[in-house]
Design a protein that fits this description.
Elements (H helix, E strand, L loop, with lengths): L2 E4 L7 H11 L3 E5 H5 L5 H10 L3 E8 L9 H19 L3 E5 L10 H17 L3 E5 L10 H11 L4 E6 H6 L15 E6 L9 H8 L10 H10 L6 E3 L4 H5 L2 H22 L16 E10 L2 H13 L3 E6 L4 E6 L2 E6 L4 H10 L2 E9 L2 H10 L18 E3 L5 E5 L8 H5 E3 L11 E12 L3 H11 L3 E2 L3 E5 L2 E9 L6 E7 L5 H9 L3 E9 L2 H10 L9 H11 L3 H10 L2 E5 L2 E7 L8 E8 L10 H16 L4
Parallel strand pairs: 1-2, 1-8, 2-3, 3-4, 4-5, 5-6, 6-7, 7-8, 9-12, 13-15, 17-21, 22-25
Antiparallel strand pairs: 9-13, 10-11, 10-16, 11-12, 14-15, 17-22, 18-20, 19-20, 20-21, 23-24, 24-25
């Protein structure tokens, strides 16, 4: 499988785009005409730069308003095509994309269009070139790949073929299975793009909201399965128009693009086992059994503050690392680690981000397979020298620069805590507050990074994404989307901040980058846990009385039950028969916090309706903490 990406898909000048595309591992690129016109080098220089970068020019595009034109426009269209052929030969590429006509003067008619393409094909063949015809979803007369194919078929020229674009087919809800009857050798190129489902003008939707396969809601996998059934074995190319991508990191967007293509074809290969598909071999998406540990980087002073918080939450300090300044805290099935080493990755993370989560350990079905799949999808492995008594635990770097380690049931990794930690005094009777496991982690990032994080998790692990929701902060919106396994063993909420005035945006600014902003612990009895926490000196985040008055009316709660919630500052949500209870800690530092939750009756959400009231309470607390003391 050859991979390609259109230069319009990423930001930067031509040299920056070229460097990013090459570094991401693509085989080729489509040169979008505007990128070439804005470059100050000669066509031959551009072609040489591309080849020096180890790439090929998959396509030159777009050539517009060609077929079905009346005179004198028709003659002018052929003259323009000849000029483009001159340019292509200087660039060193042999395929040009012709998109269906949108001109108001264009004439309809399949035969008329086929005659134009037959002549264009003859002219292209005389120069050793080819042309591909693509149906734009908003084309004046041709907006369906079936009509485009009929024009190509009637043109009957070997130098004229079809270009398929997933967006144009899926946006109009055209049956993808109609592609299966097209001969694979008549398809000259396949362009791929996904998009969120939005009801809007097709052209505007296409020009502003496309994203990588797997990042949106369109049935790109079904589209590609149909293409694979034709026997097509040419390049797969990304053509993405997206406002965020135009302002994002060329390197990051290019990496996402390559990952999306590899992931897409891995899915297609597994769904179409009888079709030979050239794709990178890798293990299937990895099953996650839970979050094994969360590690904090800190200095000695802040480690004491963290330790006090852990004690107030009912955790016991049960182990100390055999060779490092690392302590292990446990409650139920939850392992929290504090690392105060003065060297290594954790220390580097502390120097950059301050006290923060630097490492997440996942319990997976196969740790080695997890790293193998992640590497095949472009993730970087992580290693640092193992000290005395330490295990070599498989790990990769996460999207935001953090680390993810993987534990499985193999003999060595299953005993990591007994091997690497010396036991301390046994947990005191009654120390636990009834917290059983990590319900979910909340990772906060700039909104522009959300798609990158989402693709990272869904391509490597057997997870699904939930619909995006808007979290209302008094200073603006925060976009939130959950990534979760079907059984809920892994739940991660991704929260994208759009400005620094929101609580999430302030957290990113103060921690210098994306990070885990809060950890939610599960309990089987929120009221018992709240009472136990209060006895330990835990101070819950204070929620407005007005919230509980409204809650009682909105859900028709028994007044005594509503008062129990208010007395413990417990927030409440309901979804069908399911109920959700939330208890928050105050902020630690510039916006990090803990949460205790209970799910009843199969509740699947995350209490999104309560987020604005939690944020308002946190901001009140932050203001109160900054007021001068008398």
């Amino acid at each position: 499988m050859k991979t390609s990406i259109a230069t319009v898909s990423i930001s930067g000048d031509f040299r920056e785009k070229l460097a990013a595309i090459s570094a991401a591992g693509f085989d080729g690129l489509e040169i979008f005409e505007n990128d070439f016109l804005a470059f100050d080098g000669r066509p031959g220089d551009v072609g040489e730069m591309v080849r020096d970068a180890g790439l090929e020019i998959t396509l030159f595009q777009p050539f517009r308003d060609f077929e079905g034109m009346p005179e004198p426009h028709r003659t002018r269209a052929f003259d323009r095509a000849e000029r483009k052929f001159d340019l292509m030969q200087e660039l060193g590429t042999e395929l040009m994309l012709v998109c269906s006509n949108v001109s108001s003067v264009a004439l309809g008619g399949i035969d008329r269009a086929a005659e134009d393409f037959a002549e264009l094909g003859a002219r292209a063949a005389a120069r050793g070139l080819r042309v591909g015809y693509e149906a734009l979803a908003w084309g004046r007369h041709v907006n369906d790949h079936r009509d485009a194919w009929e024009i190509v078929r009637r043109a009957g020229h070997d130098s004229v073929g079809l270009i398929l674009d997933s967006f144009h087919t899926l946006a109009r809800k055209t049956d993808v299975n109609t592609i299966r009857s097209i001969p694979g050798d008549r398809i000259f190129l396949v362009q791929l793009a996904d998009a969120p489902l939005i009801d809007m003008d097709l052209l505007y939707w296409s020009r502003h909201f496309r994203n990588m396969p797997g990042e949106g809601d369109l049935a790109v996998t079904d589209f590609m399965r149909a293409v694979a059934a034709t026997g097509y074995d040419g390049a797969l190319s990304l053509e993405i128009f997206n406002d965020q991508f135009r302002g994002g990191s060329p390197k990051s967007i290019a990496v996402d693009g390559h990952r999306s293509l590899v992931y897409l074809m891995d899915q297609v290969r597994r769904l179409e086992p009888d079709i030979r598909i050239e794709v990178t071999e890798m293990p299937d998406r990895i099953e996650v059994e839970g979050i094994e540990f969360v590690e904090f980087a800190a200095d000695e002073a802040e480690a004491e503050v963290l330790s006090g918080m852990f004690e107030a939450l009912g955790f016991s300090r049960i182990g100390r690392h055999v060779s490092k300044d690392v302590t292990l805290w446990r409650q139920g099935g939850i392992n929290l680690v504090i690392n105060t080493e003065r060297e290594g990755f954790s220390h580097s993370s502390y120097l950059v981000h301050g006290t923060s989560v630097c490492d997440i350990g996942l319990k997976v079905a196969d740790a080695a397979a997890t790293v193998a799949r992640a590497r095949a999808l472009g993730a970087d492995t992580f290693e640092q020298p193992a000290g005395p008594g330490e295990l070599k635990i498989p790990a990769i770097r996460g999207v935001g620069g953090g680390v993810m380690h993987f534990i499985d049931d193999t003999a060595e990794l299953a005993r990591v805590w007994e091997t690497e930690f010396r036991p301390l005094a046994a947990a005191q009777e009654g120390a636990s507050a009834g917290l059983t496991r990590i319900d979910h982690l909340a990772q906060t990032m700039n909104y522009e990074e959300m798609l990158t994080w989402m693709l990272f998790y869904t391509s490597i692990f057997a997870t699904r994404k939930t619909p995006m929701v808007d979290v209302v902060d008094p200073a603006g919106l925060v976009r939130s989307q959950a990534i979760e396994t079907a059984d809920g063993n892994l739940r991660i909420t991704l929260n994208g901040a759009e400005n620094r005035r929101t609580l999430a945006g302030r957290f990113i600014a103060e921690s210098f980058g994306s990070a885990v902003q809060h950890i939610a612990f599960a309990t089987d009895d929120i009221f018992a846990s709240a009472a136990a926490l209060e006895a330990k000196g835990f101070r819950a985040l204070e929620i407005s009385r007005n919230y509980y008055d409204d809650l009682e009316a909105r859900f028709g709660l028994d007044p005594d039950f509503a008062e129990r919630l208010r007395a413990r500052n417990i927030l409440y949500d309901r979804d069908g028969e399911g109920e959700y209870f939330q208890l928050y800690s105050p902020n630690y530092g510039e916006g990090f916090f803990f949460e205790v939750v209970e799910r009843r009756g199969g509740y699947k959400g995350y209490g999104a309706a309560n987020a604005q009231f939690r944020i308002a309470a946190q901001k009140r607390q932050l203001r109160s903490d900054t007021l001068p003391r008398r």
